[in-house]
Amino acid sequence: MRGPTRAxxxxxxxxxxxxxxxxxxxxxxDAADADATPPPPxxxxxxxxxxxxxVVPGAPSLPYPTLRHxxxxxxxxxxxxxxxxxxxRYRVVDGTxxxxxxxxxxxxxxxxxxSWDARFAGTIFGLEPDTAYEVEVxxxxxxxxxxxxxxxxxxxxxxAPMPGAPIVAVTPATLAGALGAAQPGQILELAGGSYPxxxxxxxxxxxxxxxxxxxxxxxxxxxxxxxxxGRRFVHxxxxxxxxxxxxxxxxxxxxxxxxVTTTEDGIVTKTRGERHYIADNDVVGATVWAEASLGxxxxxxxxxxxxxxxxxxxxxxxxxxFRDCVSLIEDAGxxxxxxxxxxxxxxxxxxxxAIEADFCAHxxxxxxxxxxxxxxxxxxxxxxxxxxxxxRNVAWNVVLxxxxxxxxxxxxxxxxxxxxxxxxxxxxxxxDVFARQWIRNNLFLGGAGGTYNGYDIGAxxxxxxxxxxxxxxxxxxxxxxxxxxxxxxxxATAFASLAELRARTxxxxxxxxxPAVFATPTSPPASPFPAAPMPPLTLAPGGAxxxxxxxxxxxxxxxxxxxxxxxxxxxxxxxxAYGPR
Length: 581
Prior knowledge:
The chain is mainly β. It has a domain at 31-154: Immunoglobulin-like (Sandwich), CATH 2.60.40. The chain has 3 helices and 48 strands. The protein has a 19-stranded parallel β-sheet that branches. It has a 13-stranded parallel β-sheet with strand order 11-12-15-18-21-24-27-29-31-33-36-39-44, with helices on one face. The chain has a 4-stranded antiparallel β-sheet with strand order 1-2-8-5, with no helix packed on it. The two termini are 35 Å apart. The model is unreliable at 1-34 (pLDDT under 50).
């Protein structure tokens, strides 16, 4: 019998060692360990004399805190045998220590023209905004070399107007003058009426943003873009816009609660920005959900929300009808894409990617999003060493791949996601070898195959990962099923039953699932078109997904029963809210 459900949170605490492949990987702690106070970091006394394989620690840092996450980066040299390990613990200043996940190892490499030095990196999840934290980290190598350090950082506050901010009443006739005279700390409140597109030319200041806020009935007319290029500390709140919001070369913007309808892009920057907060917006594009729309060359248009640069938070938006609904920038346009949160968004009718996290250098967090009626659900094409986190996302009616790990992606972490689709349940259709993925507690259900707009979605295998680098792929404790039978391939290894999957691959704790795994028994849709209502995808008590995951403190440590459940939803915990709050 399952006990009371612990409050659900994503809080990252101690189970990936130097995860991936030939690196040493720790055994995840069991449920009893999840609440234990971890010991302080320490180095051997006396120290181990460094040998030729010893690690040489650099200086760790906590770059670009966001509202609810801290990123840890620790460069290193040496350690050619890859056996150095890390420990991490954290607390609110003067609070109780909790363990956090050991950091993810990213050896030095070059991919798609981007090079990086050797590093350990990782995230502490589920923190409180505007709160000071201490983080203690240790890097040890049995061949010699050890360092232990304590770091401090403060999470960012939720953006808000200055307390007691003066309000400037604005009408369509006075808008230009009010914008030209705006001062840090002011709220420009737009009265009901139709406004032309406008460009903001003044900056706010830290703690004193310029806020442009709509009263009831304020709209920006058809084709009226809002431009914030080069601005700092400006908030745009509650506008109804028939056009786009664009903000090249800007920093510390808040774009909140707007309704954007566009025939092009929605809320975008095409150049590096820092620390933008894009939340609770409704963004509607012109792409229709139809077979001819699918794929990069399909009849689709526009980026719903697009950013590049570090430290952005994109949360609780509803985005519908774009080529890519939420995206980072690719290739030469991708600049320092680190410490980015894409959380709690509701995404639908995305004809290429629902979430395009391409060219993430490390610590992009794709957490708790809902995707339905999409060509590809989540893209990492490629990840640049990792970790790129995909955690507790739900994807329904994905046409091709739930995870697009293409162009040689390195360092993706997939934990507690739920996927229901036609064709291959977990298929990545590429010949580019992808490497160093770490995969746990996911739930994949596939079905009959087909071909759509020229794309073959597979015949319904449960796994189709032919291009996986099996020397560095680490996956286990996942659930798979398909109405087409239980067959698949990981690298060169094929299987035709659950027993063969367990015996021939790292999935030694895998389970087989079917429609009855859900409280409302659910099969993949009979056809991707037209769009159909998404079922709840909460789990059935006593089903095959219950209590068969692995406990991952600070990542999968809030559960009832003997172990975490598979997929995005823990039995007994209410599903999260998606989209605008």
